[in-house]
Queue: 2 jobs
Job 1
Amino acid sequence: MRNNISVLKKYIASQAISKCASCSLRELCLPVGLDAHETEILSDLIEHKCKIGRGEYLLRAGMRFKSLYAVRNGFFKSYILDSEGRQQVTGFYMTGELLGLDAISAEIHTCETVALEDSEVCEVPFERLEEISCSIPLLMHQFHKIMSREIVQDHRVMVLLGNMKAEERIAAFLLNLSDRFEKRGYSATSFVLRMTREEIGSYLGLKLETVSRSFSKLQDEGMITINNKHVELHDIHRLTRKISGY
Amino acid sequence: MRNNISVLKKYIASQAISKCASCSLRELCLPVGLDAHETEILSDLIEHKCKIGRGEYLLRAGMRFKSLYAVRNGFFKSYILDSEGRQQVTGFYMTGELLGLDAISAEIHTCETVALEDSEVCEVPFERLEEISCSIPLLMHQFHKIMSREIVQDHRVMVLLGNMKAEERIAAFLLNLSDRFEKRGYSATSFVLRMTREEIGSYLGLKLETVSRSFSKLQDEGMITINNKHVELHDIHRLTRKISGY
DNA sequence: CGCTCGGTTGACCCGTTTCAAGTAACGTGG
DNA sequence: CCACGTTACTTGAAACGGGTCAACCGAGCG
């Protein structure tokens, strides 16, 4: 009896914490601006907490599109595979960010998406999201903002790839991560890179050796310390100046 | 009297042809899949036919976001201006394509958008578009597809900027234009470039001299003829092979 | 008609890639 | 828990592609 109650309690607790209403990411994710009732409706259609182990694929290119996925915790990369098997990383995704937006247009996923650490996602069935956003204008609007933000972010990468030198790209990359960590309540100046030099290079249009050299250069100049995957930003101002002009 | 009637007739005619229902771009633009009644509702909120002369700006970075714009005819470029005044072209837009999607997220336009030839656009007030798409699910869905398509297109540019060599970029660029012209009923193999070499270079992450050299090279290899702004594609297959692998 | 702007081409230079060697961290199985 | 093999990372030297600088040409426009 005792035991049963404790199991039940645990079950209720796990349900509770997985709801949007009590999710720490509310303010970064789809429910921004929704009231309690609306949040509940949204929450009900979402499959909360799918676990994805490190190295596991959440999405494969060619998969039929059914759902978007919100990162609940963890870290993902998305990439496009060319016919010779090379990767072009199209983005890194952290807590509160929405995966799979590229697939809406053709109803087929175009990116491979893999967890770079043990992660959890919330599955958002897209058809149902569209249905309920008819009756929750704020949700629809928030969704549009999220899609638009993805476009803005992609434009930033285009500027980076089109105009910046290697060191500038790395500086921009670190500052972008720093920003996003800070928004999520983590340190803006000290964090761990979840991806390899090769993955960074693929994202930034550089070879891994160039990434490594650029890190070393920024370290020599005293702006950062880099120790394997651990980064410390010592002089955000100077890093920013390095890319100012873009 | 005679005169008045003729003026009236002209007015009615101009109204009629400017409606979505009779627009030749229906199948490329927002009304895809809508029935007559729905098309009418959409059409009513759109300000049809704003003329933008060559060299005039449709949007400026920093402008408050109010509307999206569908290109009715003509040709536009969008670009981001860095603090030193350099341009990074983020896209070229032709008939039926939707401008201003980047501005939804921050409610501020981030791109400068200028007509490269005398053009006309339809203004789509965004708040009202969101309102009516609550009652026209197909319209909402079509809008989501258009945004998603923009993301996919940006990803393609990222691959191009991240991995391809100069000549490959030019080949990819020409094939992309060819495709889009063909979809609009124009020749896939013979068309006029509306933009300068410098603008092409900015879009493709190359200097104008490199663009020029790459055109010459492709011409020497017999794949294209290029005469000022006029291009002929002689061997689409070979051009495609040049970029296959991406 | 002449000026300006856009485009082409050549020569040289610089930054990134490529190739190569060596080292450090990590995960696995004994 | 250690030894091993594997993978990730760093650094150097040489090669190469695209950038830069410069001269010239041609088309379009006032």
Note: Residues 165-166, 206-207, 209-210, 213, 228 of chain B lie near DNA strand D (CB under 10 Å from a C1').
Job 2
Amino acid sequence: MHVVLSRSPRGVCAQRLDDDGTARDVAQNVAEHDLPAFIGRLERERPRWVWDDTTRWYPQLLAAGLRLERCVDLRLSHAILRGSTLTAASRLARAPRGAWDAATPLADKPETHSALFDFAVEPAHGAGDSPLEEFLLQQEAIAASAEPGRISRLLAAESAGALIASEMKFAGLPWQAGLHEELLVELLGDRPAPGARPARLEELARRMREILQVSDVNPDSPAELLKTLRGTGLQVASTRSWELKEIDHPVIAPLLEYKKLARLLTANGWTWLETWVADGRFRADYVPGGTATGRWGASGGGALQLPKQIRGAVVADPGWKLVVADAAQLEPRILTALSADRRMAEAGRGDLYEGIVASGAVATRAQAKVAMLGAMYGATAGEGGRLMPALTRAFPQAIAMVEAAARAGERGEVVTTRLGRSSPVPGDEWRDLQQAGSAQDATEATRRAAGGQARSWGRFTRNFIVQGTAAEWALCWMAGLRGRLWQLGDGGLAERPHLVFFLHDEVIVHTPAELADRVVAELRAAASDAGRLIFGAMPVTFPITTAVVDNYGQAK
DNA sequence: GGGTCTTGCGCG
DNA sequence: AAAGCGCGCAAGACCC
């Protein structure tokens, strides 16, 4: 059973649907304040809740103590169906852009700007924009798809991800502000007055002045720093750390240390702590489907960029543990499964990179890693580029697949992940330049620019199929894990083992200590489920590394 | 003064 | 080891 929820000025409307899409009864109107009780009652029948945007419904339900098993997030589903080559012929994909193609989550927009429930505001969209009609249009597109099984799995995983994102924000990542502050004081000195440098940074700037024998140096301004360095005879093109590392000069060491600490101060210093940590929790805003490839984004707090320096401040509650798990060498394994390259699958029975060395393709594990990254990112120069021919000889099938994706992108074509997420179409500027570059009278410079741009888009599509399918795997992993964790405990969401962090191929589960071993088992089981769900009986394994720790800094 | 672009660096 | 993919954020630079 599906239950389609929508809001109108009169309250919430709930329409039950049978699995064939027919209305089970007359739609019910529910007052906003009765909604949690209403949903709680119906949840016992395990419906799939259908709503426009999870962020507009689920947070308040969580706050009321509910946890729902499954949903359809129409906005996220629409974005996938609209772009997917698997549903390109559907009415949904062929319709002109409308309210469901909004670039931002609906919750980010003021209510008055939403055309979804107030047809008078934007009559141009007509009544076809209602959640019920959109849902039926989506069902139609899925049913007519060449691969309904794949696309519906993707939509289920994407929607589960939306539930998880809301739940992780609700539960929060356990964060000890006191520990974080101790760390800052230890590395930077006491908290400075606003606008002033902490003692440690001031000291480093002073040493740099002495070494360079200048009256002033401002390492916070790349432009000024570049002038100062050049003024003292240093040949540098920029002030990037990786470039400075190559230079042999006494000022480099304190400068690099300054940069490292200044970064900590501005990105995750006292201000960050005050803004993002409250009541012992860091509550990040995750953005499911926030990137072209289907990876999540984050907005505010930099949840996906937590530097290793401060991970020690992520501490389990007393009597609880953190189970940190990541999928080992996920993207190369995804490439293996996508291409069904049996020799690469054989190499991946244990450590994939060691397996590649054993195959004779390259000499060292480090080379194997660089070569695989080169294959997935499209390296042309450097060691990655040099290793490509050997890798291609050893694993022709896998390499042919990413090469084909690159060639398609260079031609401006769309590529599609295993479950059906398609890459965006290149923009008008891209097409204009390609056209200009292939014209009879094109200048050499235009030809070169067009070629460079084509290859750049080819690197994007090459990577898209791997990164995008890896994102699908991670979503399936997490969705399965979420259900398994729920079965391990009793009570509300935060009283049972629950997800508190997700970073592309890595998750953290916060769990009562006595359940940690069972959480580890569920993590592994969910990983092999995910592999089967996406690739069927392919002989590719997705090993998980796990660590049961008191704080995140202890993992890895 | 405010908005947008650029630089640099954190994560995978 | 090199600078090839995907992101978000803060600060300075730059422009009006």
Note: The first strand of chain A starts at residue 2 and ends at 8.
